[in-house]
Amino acid sequence: MSEWKIDPDHTVAAFMVRHFMITLVRGQFNRVSGTIQFDPDKPSLGSVEVEIEAASLYTGIAKRDEHLHSPDFLDVEKFPLILFKSSRFEPVAVTHFKVPGALTIRGTTQPVILDVEYLGRVKSPFDEDISIGFSASTRLNRQDFGVNWNFDMENGGLVVGNDVFLNLEVEADLVG
After folding, report:
1. How many of the other CB atoms lie within 10 Å of CB of 173?
2. Counting CB atoms within 10 angstroms of each CB, which of 5, 60, 88, 150 has the fewest?
3. Is the pTM here over 0.85, yes or no?
């Protein structure tokens, strides 16, 4: 089993959520780190640990970012890290896996399943580094993690949707 270190310069955790129930607002976390234990010949023995710095959230709108950092949403002062930990990869196809694990947001841990595509292994043309890539996604209800701020709309909808769509684009480098 090989150990891989997530490359924070080439990895991003992005999210989408409905605003006024009519549009998807997008954002991302720019500081993601962690380790992956993975061998494409023995994927079921794999594991992953990811740390996301909550304060690295960026939507491009400073006022919105400040609100998302506040206790109404992520409360980044009190809960600086978002964590994901899994102890296995469940093969679905040769390069497709379900990765069940524990996701912690705002100090609340819930089970989630990442839908993961293994994108392959490459050697850098610039040095001797070997890297692998993954694309992972899931959908979660933000209220399951205590992120409850909202207001009702007159049409019966909500200001902010409860479903959050997460996507991780991961590049990781071989350790050792």
Report:
1. 15
2. 60
3. yes
Query: β-strands 90-93, 81-86: how paired?
Result: unpaired
Query: Tokens representing 172?
Result: 């990781």
Q: What is the rounded distance in angstroms from the CA atom of residue 59 to the CA atom of residue 24?
A: 12
The distance between the two most distant Cα atoms of the chain, rounded to a whole number of Å, is 59
Phi, psi of 75 (to 5 degrees): 50, 60
CA distance 141 to 139: 7
Half-sphere exposure of 102 (CA within 13 A, CB side): 6
Residue pair 39/2 in contact (Cβ under 8 Å)? The answer is: yes
- For the segment 113-152, what is each residue's pLDDT rounded down to a tens digit? 999 999 999 998 888 789 999 999 999 999 999 999 988 8
